[in-house]
Amino acid sequence: MNATVISIFIFIVGITLVITYFAAKRTNSASDFYTAGGGLTGWQNGLAIAGDYLSAASFLGIAGAIALFGFDGFLFSIGYLVAYLVVLFIVAEPLRNLGKYTLADMINARFNAKKVRGAAALSSITIVIFYMIAQLVGAGALIQLLFGIDYIWAVLLVGIMMTIYVLFGGMTATSWVQIIKAVLLMVGTVILSFLVLKNFNFNILDMFTQMKTATPHGEAYLSPGVKYKIPLDTISLMLALVLGTAGLPHILMRFFTVKDAKTARSSVMWATWIVGIFYVMTIFLGFGAAAFVGSDLITSTNPAGNMAAPLLAQALGGDILMSFISAVAFATILAVVAGLVLTGASAFAHDIYGQIIKKGQATERQQMLAARYASLGVSAFSILLAIFAQSLNVAFLVSLAFCIAASANLPVILYTIFWKRFNTTGAISAILTGLISALVLVSLSPSVMNPVAGAAIFVGDPIFPLTNPALFSVPLGFIGGWVGTMLSKELDVKKYSEVNVRANTGGFRQL
């Protein structure tokens, strides 16, 4: 720990706290708390979406995965990027036209049933918890490395900060922290990429040639199969990443922070460009870490490889650049976890408390209090889980969250928008089938059970062969929705027609 590191960290944290202070003055209603009053512009929300999406898994996890596993690590970048096309062309506009604060609001536009809202809230909370653990694990490892403090205290420090942002600033503070973080992250990544290319004489072909001998994997480093030995495993992972984004509740919630569908589409365009440029640059971060840091130092610092990017910064730019990159990574994590806390709190406070327990009759003050209590609860629970998940790779944890989102949320979203016959029973069965199948299969997979000690949570032979079960759980989610629908006689064509008009035009939207 040195004065430079401390100064940069204090400066960035100070900026975020100033933002929170001013945002708190503008957060006077449930709408302000959950969606910043719907007042963000397209470019602002686009940067905020990119900020939400470019998480610790992207900056720390993917850089480490590419450094250690080459092409197999880059699969994460490909999957995350392609996923935005699904969001852009299928989900963004209908979601903005039908929803209000949460994913459950959008589904409830067609099925006014507490059971559907409860199932959607349960799915959202589960996804948020897994995603949150990944961010907190990355943050804990980073702070532990820089300040030399215990992992537990590092996680607690980040947890306290994220709770402050959400409690006092709501969506306004969270959005502006995301915007600033996205800009800082792109600046830091461009600087690192430039330095890596400089060391390869700005010759990309020469860079790929040198990488064939720069790692213990040899030429296999640039081919599939270093990490994922089973082809079906690779396909399953890609399916989770490509389809999961369209079901992530904290990304979907961002479309409620703009005034109309046109601005929602503009947001996605901005986000797609930023995210696309970033993921191309992860190649330089990963290759640079492998060539100029080395896998031995990367894994000795953090077995999962999460510190590859900060170590690369130190190797190429010394302590000052490492301090800046680490501070950017810290800001990245703070911003993302704040958004996740807000999303989890919305599911608890708005869906379960406000709409199910209080039957939509909660006062403005009751809604605000419930949201803040829920924020505290989500934060405390996530911190507790993150303390026991230190050795897990954050990219794996995030891919698991994507798998659940693709299996439980995406089927019900698509059926709600496009299938006339879809009904309440189908909605509940789609969510629960996707959620339960994903969780059960993961608990039996090599990610949880592995014969090599320390490679997973438990030592033993896995019962299910794939590390990510999306290849099976996503179809099961769709099949569950179809079977549930066909077993029920419920059919409301008039309601579907109304929802179809609203989804495509925004007409009859009730705020």
TrEMBL record:
In which compartments does the protein localize? Cell membrane
Annotated transmembrane regions? 6-24, 45-68, 74-95, 116-137, 143-167, 179-197, 235-256, 268-293, 320-349, 370-389, 395-418, 430-449, 469-487
Question: A Gene Ontology MF term for this entry?
Answer: acetate transmembrane transporter activity
Q: Name one GO biological process term.
A: plasma membrane acetate transport
Q: Which domain of life is it from?
A: Bacteria
Per UniProt, which keywords does this protein have?
Cell membrane, Ion transport, Membrane, Sodium, Symport, Transmembrane, Transmembrane helix, Transport
- The yes or no answer to whether the keyword Membrane is present is yes
Name the Gene3D superfamilies on file.
Sodium/glucose cotransporter
User: What is the name listed in the Swiss-Prot or TrEMBL entry for this protein?
Assistant: Na(+)-dependent symporter
- Source organism of the structure: Planococcus donghaensis MPA1U2
